[in-house]
């Protein structure tokens, strides 16, 4: 074994141990979060009703939060590389709103069909992604301003349709919907958890498989093509998978904003831009981030609750401004 | 290695390249000269399948270019394009290693061999010690050399270079052409170079293609193509032609 190989292996094992440490931190965060809340629980003694609170209400909510965080962070990281823009984010691009509109339509018209919400959310997310991409690209390529503006246009357009729809709903439903639109995990169920976990895991694996191609896409589509990437295929896979991840997240918890912006940014600061690391690490850090944010949302003004999206936006919006200025 | 047969390329109704044919043989450097907008870059882009040809065909080692997969073409043809900028913190070593994409598996990590090739290419391009620097912190010329390193790291037998010396100082211009020249002669690779430096073309090219409005005006050895009449037709300027006293190659000086 040459010295280089040893050096390379050392680097790899360092990242592997970082991954293990992060994963253990995620488990610890979930454990602590499950004990906190309007009803404080002790790990050692649980009575019947506390048991019900923990296993039927709190844990599903925390675990769905973790899956949503992972999905949004992975979708953000891959969209950023694909669009060569560190500011690309599902919420800011209007992808979340597309999914939200899809979910609302499913709620309004197909309420009795079980999987209508996630499917319609996926369809909405895909359409919004496609629309933004078509608007942002020009013959000269795609610059930051064009992309952000297209995102704003799609977001506001979809928002106005959503507002129109909500005004047609009755008052009680309306309140729960406006709350949900800001990102709300209180409706999480066990079945919801299984579905979001499945999509989050598959999505992370699929996008990790595109990581090497995405590394080339970061320096330009033209470059990627010249060096052997099948650009159209990669673009389709990444857009499709990211839409599925955003769709499932929005169907589960509404639009939790800025996760896809903050998390990949932090990960890149720590370990650099190699997507083979950025994509899986973003999944774990995203999960930790949303579980923490939701714990704050549940406990800050207990027994009342804040929408988790309000907490993530509070952190995310200043970071967005900072990144925009630095660009 | 590369045979271009009567190709035409158009953007919509506007024909950019018309009925261009030439051969690129192993070990040869071909320079592509012409005024701005003559179709040089368009022609170069089509040679690795980046732009579809409206007519004619391109043969790579005797087989139609379209019969190869993207990955196979990238293993045989490397490109150095004009612009290159990223907003992400990519290190120089990561950047050069990404040139090994076509040789690896989709999931896999680079092997020791890949790493060695990347380090050797950095050394060749005078970038040893730059491995952990960030691409977006480099100067224009340093970035240009990193781009060359990445192209060399593919170990492709054909190099397509679009104004490779645009950002380089005098020393590194000579370095780049010497490097390309050595690689072509030693490994029987070949290169097609777009350049505006007529004297560099004269010094290093085995053949020059002079393009005007998408058509080949003249092709052949530098001495045959770089004539006062041809240069007057293409660039509309008067030139003084003599011989470089050291290399004995044709020297072109513009008369202002």
Q: How does this structure look, described?
A:
The complex is a heterodimer of chains A (327) and B (256). Chain A is mainly alpha-helical. Chain A has a single domain (51-326), classed as ABC transporter involved in vitamin B12 uptake, BtuC (Orthogonal Bundle). Chain A is built from 13 helices and no strands. In chain A, helix 1 (3-35) packs across helix 2 (48-82). The longest helix of chain A has 35 residues, at 48-82. Chain A is globular and about 65 Å long. Chain B is of the alpha/beta class. Chain B has one domain (2-254): Rossmann fold, CATH 3.40.50. Chain B has helices at residues 40-46, 70-76, 92-97, 112-124, 140-153, 170-187, 198-204, 222-225, 228-235; strands at 2-11, 14-24, 29-34, 55-60, 63-64, 77-80, 158-162, 190-194, 207-212, 215-220, 239-243, 250-254. Chain B has a 6-stranded mixed beta sheet, sandwiched between helices. In chain B, helix 4 packs across helix 5 (140-153). Chain B is globular and about 55 Å long. The interface between A and B is large, with 34 and 37 residues.
Give the class of chain A from helix and strand content and strand pairing.
Answer: mainly alpha
Please give the most extensive interface between any two protein chains, plus how many residues each contributes. Answer: A-B, 34 and 37 residues
Give the CATH superfamily of chain A: ABC transporter involved in vitamin B12 uptake, BtuC
Low-confidence stretches of chain A: 1-6
The H-and-E topology of chain A, N to C, reads as HHHHHHHHHHHHH
Number of strands of chain B: 12
Radius of gyration of chain A: 20 Å
User: The CATH topology of chain A is what?
Assistant: ABC transporter involved in vitamin B12 uptake, BtuC
Q: Supply the number of structural domains of chain A.
A: 1
Instruction: Estimate what percentage of residues of chain A fall within beta strands.
Output: under 5%
Averaged pLDDT of chain A, please? 86
- Overall geometric form of chain A: globular
Q: What does the overall shape of chain B look like?
A: globular
- CATH top level of chain B is Alpha Beta
Q: What low-confidence regions of chain B span 5 or more consecutive residues with pLDDT below 50?
A: none
Total domains of chain B, how many? 1
Global mean pLDDT of chain B: 90
The biggest beta sheet of chain A reads: none
């Amino acid at each position: 074994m040459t010295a280089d190989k040893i050096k390379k292996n050392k680097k790899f094992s360092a990242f592997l141990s970082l991954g293990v440490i992060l994963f253990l931190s995620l488990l610890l965060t979930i454990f602590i979060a499950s004990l906190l809340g309007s009803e404080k629980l002790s790990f050692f003694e649980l009575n019947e009703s506390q048991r019900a609170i923990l296993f039927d209400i709190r844990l599903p909510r925390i675990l769905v939060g973790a899956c949503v965080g992972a999905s949004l962070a992975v979708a953000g990281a891959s969209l950023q590389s694909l669009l060569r823009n560190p500011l690309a984010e599902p919420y800011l691009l209007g992808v979340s709103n597309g999914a939200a509109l899809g979910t609302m339509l499913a709620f309004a018209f197909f309420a009795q069909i079980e999987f209508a919400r996630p499917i319609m959310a996926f369809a909405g997310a895909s359409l919004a992604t496609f629309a933004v991409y078509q608007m942002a690209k020009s013959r000269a390529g795609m610059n930051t301003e064009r992309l952000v503006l297209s995102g704003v246009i799609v977001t506001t357009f979809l928002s106005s349709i959503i507002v129109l729809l909500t005004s047609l709903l009755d008052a009680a439903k309306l309140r729960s919907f406006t709350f949900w639109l800001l990102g709300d995990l209180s409706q999480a169920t066990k079945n919801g958890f299984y579905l979001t976990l499945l999509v989050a895991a598959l999505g992370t694996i699929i996008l990790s498989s595109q990581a090497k191609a995405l590394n080339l896409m970061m320096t330009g589509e033209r470059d990627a093509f010249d060096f052997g990437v099948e650009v159209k295929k990669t673009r389709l896979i990444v857009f499709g998978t990211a839409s599925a991840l955003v769709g499932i997240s929005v169907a589960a918890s509404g639009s939790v904003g800025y996760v896809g912006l903050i998390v990949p940014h932090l990960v890149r600061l720590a370990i650099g831009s190699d997507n083979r690391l950025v994509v899986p690490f973003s999944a774990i850090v995203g999960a930790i981030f949303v579980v923490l944010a939701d714990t704050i949302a549940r406990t800050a003004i207990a027994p009342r609750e804040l929408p988790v999206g309000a907490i993530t936006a509070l952190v995310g919006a200043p970071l967005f401004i900072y990144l925009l200025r630095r660009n | 290695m590369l045979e271009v047969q009567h190709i035409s390329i158009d953007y919509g109704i506007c024909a950019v390249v018309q009925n261009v044919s030439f051969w690129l043989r192993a070990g040869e450097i071909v320079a592509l000269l012409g005024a701005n907008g003559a179709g040089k870059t368009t022609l170069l882009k089509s040679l690795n399948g980046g732009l579809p040809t409206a007519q004619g065909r391109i043969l790579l080692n005797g087989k139609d270019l379209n019969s190869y997969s993207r990955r196979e073409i990238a293993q045989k043809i490397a490109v150095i394009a004009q612009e290159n900028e990223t907003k992400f913190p990519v290190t120089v070593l990561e950047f050069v290693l990404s040139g090994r994409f076509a040789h690896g598996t989709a999931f896999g990590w680079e092997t020791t061999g890949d790493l060695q090739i990347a380090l050797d290419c950095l050394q060749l391009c005078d970038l040893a010690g730059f491995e952990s620097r960030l691409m977006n912190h480099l100067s224009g010329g340093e970035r240009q050399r990193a781009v060359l390193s990445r192209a060399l790291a593919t170990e492709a037998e054909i190099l397509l270079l679009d104004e490779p010396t645009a950002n380089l100082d005098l020393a590194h211009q000579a370095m780049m052409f010497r490097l390309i020249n050595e690689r072509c002669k030693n490994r029987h690779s070949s290169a097609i170079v777009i350049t505006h430096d007529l004297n560099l073309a004269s010094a290093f090219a085995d053949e020059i293609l002079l393009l005007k409005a998408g058509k080949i005006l003249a092709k052949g050895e530098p001495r045959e193509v770089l004539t006062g009449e041809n240069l007057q037709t293409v660039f509309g300027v008067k030139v003084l032609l003599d011989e470089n006293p050291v290399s004995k190659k044709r020297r072109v000086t513009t008369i202002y």
